[in-house]
Amino acid sequence: QVQLVESGGGLVQAGGSLRLSCEASGFTFSSYAMRWYRQAPGKERALVAGISKFGDSTDYSESVKGRFTISRDNAKNTVYLQMNSLKPEDTAVYYCYVVRGAGYWGQGTQVTVSS
C-alpha cells in the first residue's frame, strides 16, 4: 500500500534552516507529482510547494517563494523540502502528498520556529 513517511522537522530559531524528507513506497514514485502542504494551529491545510514527476517543474506558494526549495530523488523515492530563512509564521505540521488517484498523505512532521 502507499506509504509516505516524513522526517526532518524540529525546533529552530527564526532565520534558521531545516530540510524535510518524505520517503515514499507502495507505488512507482517517478510516475507522480509530489507536493508539500502545511497546517498551522487553527488554520486549514495549505499548499506549500509542488514538483513534477521528473523534477523539471516546481511551484511555490507566495509566502515561501525564494526561501523554500522542493526537490526529489527518484532513485531514492524521496522528495525534499529545503527551508531557509525560517519565520515564526512557518510553524506548522508539514505533510507530504502524492498526486495519485484520490491522493495520499503522510503522517506529518512538526516544524516550530521560535522568535
Strand content: over 45%
Q: Which bin fits the share of residues in helices?
A: under 10%
E-strand count:
11
Order of helices and strands: EEEEEEEEEEE
Low-pLDDT runs of 5+ residues are none
Output mean pLDDT: 97
The description of the largest β-sheet is: 7 strands, mixed
Q: What form results from the Cα inertia axes?
A: globular
Taking all Cα atoms into account, the compactness measure Rg is 13 Å
Number of helices: 0
List strands and helices in order, with pairings.
Elements: E1 3-7, E2 10-13, E3 18-25, E4 34-39, E5 46-51, E6 58-60, E7 68-73, E8 78-83, E9 92-98, E10 104-105, E11 109-114
Parallel strand pairs: 2-11
Antiparallel strand pairs: 1-3, 3-8, 4-5, 4-9, 5-6, 7-8, 9-10, 9-11
Structure report:
- With 115 residues, the protein is mainly beta.
- The protein is built from no helices and 11 strands.
- The strands form 2 sheets. Strands 2, 4, 5, 6, 9, 10 and 11 form a 7-stranded mixed β-sheet that branches. The chain has a 4-stranded antiparallel β-sheet with strand order 1-3-8-7, with no helix packed on it.
- It is globular.
- The N and C termini lie far apart (40 Å).
- The model has no long low-confidence stretch (mean pLDDT 97).
Q: Summarize this, please?
A:
This protein is mostly beta strands and 115 residues long.
